[in-house]
# Entry
Amino acid sequence: MSTQRKQLGFTIVELLIVIVVIGILAAITIVAYNGIQNRARASASSSAAAQAAKKLAAFAVDGNGYPATLAAADIQDSASTTYQYTVNNSANPATYCLTATTGTSSYTASSTNPAPTAGACAGHGVGGVAPITNLAVNPSFEANTNTTNPANGATITRQASSAIFGSYGLSVSAPANGIGDSGVSLPNGSMTAGTTYTFSASVRSLVDTSYRISVQGSYGVGNSPVTAFTTGEVKRLSTTVTATGTGRPAVYILRSNGSLVTNFDVDGVMQTETSTIYNFADGTTPNWIWNGTTHNSTSTGSPV
# Structure
């Protein structure tokens, strides 16, 4: 008479339960570890900002205003913490703002508030992301139209109803002259040979047609794809160019169909030293600053 052996082991259901429990415990461990890491980074960047503020205050007592550079106050980047610093000794009283960043945590200290505060100074990068500069001057046409010119018979008007960003935009009317390359030049900054730049702008078409952004001239050439618009549609056009010379390029928004009158709005011009396409920002964007005259200079801040 044979004896049937009882097989020992786990059922599939039991194995699944064990796997689920292990997964839950692993998730809890990862979340807890990340939380500890984030708190450690926040503590380190807050402490660094506080210590830097004390050194800057001591320097101001002994010297004539705040130091021109952090190195002058013996404040230097470490393997884990980096600093950004803005100072204005021409103001009365003199001012400064400092951002200390450890990993993805940033804290600020300033002449008006030396106590560490989470975040970054206006114009500084935050959370380990470097700041960028919009090289286009008067990028949202808030000041005037002096940085633009009509192309091939087009007319331009700065007006509130054409605004896509801010209070004003540029209205462009291109005639039915058979010339597709009719449109408007855009405000932009100089290029340096060998450096890569990305140009972008927002367009609102008032007719069904197509447009492109075009960089022309001896300093570099580039064109975005010809992009179709329906009436009232807003799209952002961009092109990336590596400069072949040093100087100010000619940058245009051009319509593609010269057989009809083309009316469109342009706003939010960006020129950055990168191949990355960023959302529009200028000195009026939160945590951005103008690097000179408001609406008539370059601007810097964290990508948005």
The chain has a mean pLDDT of 91. The chain has one helix and 18 strands.
